[in-house]
Write a structure and sequence with these properties.
The structure holds 2 protein chains of 2 kinds. Helix content of chain A is 38%, strand content 16%. A 5-stranded parallel sheet of chain A has the order 1-2-3-7-6. Chain A is of the alpha/beta class. Chain A has one domain: 3-Layer(aba) Sandwich (Rossmann fold). By secondary structure, chain B is α/β, with parallel strands linked by helices. A 6-stranded parallel sheet of chain B has the order 2-1-3-4-6-5, sandwiched between helices. Chain B has 8 helices and 6 strands; from the N terminus they run αβαβαβααβααβαβ. In chain B, strand 1, helix 2 and strand 2 form a beta-alpha-beta unit. Classes of the chains: A alpha/beta, B alpha/beta. At the A-B interface, helix 3, helix 5 and helix 9 of A face helix 3 and helix 5 of B.
Chain lengths: 203, 181
């Protein structure tokens, strides 16, 4: 797919997207993709896509991107979508060149950028709003990387996000999620999610 | 007591391939034979160099050992045979991921961990290097089964501990006590 199909560059603006709305759009279009929410996307995703091909990363912050990489390499015929956070990606920033170096064509790396560590009390992330994640992903070698600021843009560029040749990186400008893993601790324990996903992928 | 001779890289790689072949048996997907996820380790550099020439085994180099754990877990969930090769400093660096993924997630991750600077004339517990001294006690704290590879006769420990990681659904490690040849 051409890499020039991007939303136009715009000046920074107040985030207009709720993470839950973004997740609903993705859920409706993901098809058979494996989804990997982490931190504040985890509680909402459990409600929006219950019992689906997903595995939530909480307890080893920063691990979603490489868990997604392993799944993408192991399931080359299936799309893998990582719902990363900016605070989380800061913790394993090296995963950008690691992913780009292997360049799985079936991996979409979504970054929910809210500029804070929401789960631990909304402390500002290093660099906060000023961090240009698209530049980092591009510099690392992702095949495609762009910013989405509105739901309309998200819907418009959904084909490139979900079907474009990966690795695709999308910086999503969002507000805060309604729930965090601290305010909503539900869901299956991680080891049960692992077992369930492995069983479903081998079926 | 002096350590026996170094372990040749081909012997280790053949052992990996035998393990991968056994795990691949009956699977739909046959390629690659298996995966080596590594963060480069000086003690195992001859193995890594030889692996670069292997067509059947795919090697993926990660930026950090945290990442190696994540990639290995994803591959295992997808049914892929995988081994993680790191050094002791990387074990220290990735303890939270080992705990969160391999232990809490009950993901069988088998590690080959190089003991760089391990002195040949003393037990690791008496090493003057803290990175050598604390590796085995750290694994003990987390109840991670481990053994030491310090000669060709020890190569049999690789399949033993690889299988142990699968049986117990968790981490298991072989510590590479002297540089491979």
């Amino acid at each position: 797919m051409e890499t020039s199909v991007h939303p136009p560059m715009k000046p920074p603006m107040k985030p207009s997207m709720k993470p839950e709305d973004v997740l609903r759009v993705i859920a409706a279009a993901r098809g058979t993709a494996i989804c990997i929410p982490t931190m504040t996307t985890s509680p909402a995703w459990r409600t929006i896509a219950p019992g689906d091909l997903s595995i939530g990363c909480v307890g080893f912050m920063g691990g979603a991107s490489t868990l997604g990489l392993g799944l993408a390499l192991g399931c080359p015929d299936r799309r893998v979508i990582v719902f990363d956070g900016d605070g989380s990606l800061c913790m394993q920033l090296g995963s950008l060149p690691t992913i780009a170096g292997v360049a799985p064509r079936n991996l979409t790396h979504l970054l929910f950028k809210n500029n804070v560590y929401h789960t631990s009390g909304s402390q500002e992330t290093p660099g906060g709003e000023g961090v240009d994640w698209v530049m980092m992903a591009t510099g690392a070698g992702y095949r495609d990387a762009f910013v989405i600021r509105t739901l309309d843009e998200l819907k418009e560029y959904l084909p490139a996000i979900l079907n474009g040749e990966g690795p695709v990186f999308v910086e999503l400008h969002t507000g805060l999620a309604e729930k965090t893993p601290m305010t909503d601790r539900g869901g299956l324990p991680f080891h049960q999610q692992v077992e369930t996903l492995r069983g479903r992928l081998s079926a | 007591m002096p350590l026996p001779e170094s372990v040749p890289a081909p012997l280790i790689i053949d052992t990996f391939k035998d393990l991968f072949r056994a795990e691949r048996r009956g699977m739909r997907r046959q390629e690659p034979l298996g995966w080596i996820i590594s963060v480069p380790d000086t003690h195992q550099k001859t193995v890594l160099a030889a692996l670069d020439k292997e067509r059947d085994v795919r090697v993926l180099t990660c930026s950090t050992e945290d990442e190696a754990n994540g990639v290995a877990a994803g591959l295992w969930m997808a049914g892929e045979p995988v081994i993680v090769m790191i050094q002791h400093a990387g074990l220290y660096a990735s303890v939270n991921t080992l705990r969160g993924i391999a232990m809490d997630g009950r993901v069988p991750i088998f590690y080959m961990i190089g003991l760089l600077s391990r002195e040949q004339d003393k037990d690791p517990s008496e090493s003057k290097h803290s990175m050598v001294r604390y590796a085995e006690p750290l694994l003990d704290v987390f109840a991670v089964p481990h053994a030491r590879l310090e000669g060709p006769d020890d190569v049999k420990l690789i399949p033993e501990y690889y299988r142990l990681s699968r049986e117990r659904r968790g981490p298991a490690a072989v510590l590479v006590g002297l540089a491979t040849s």
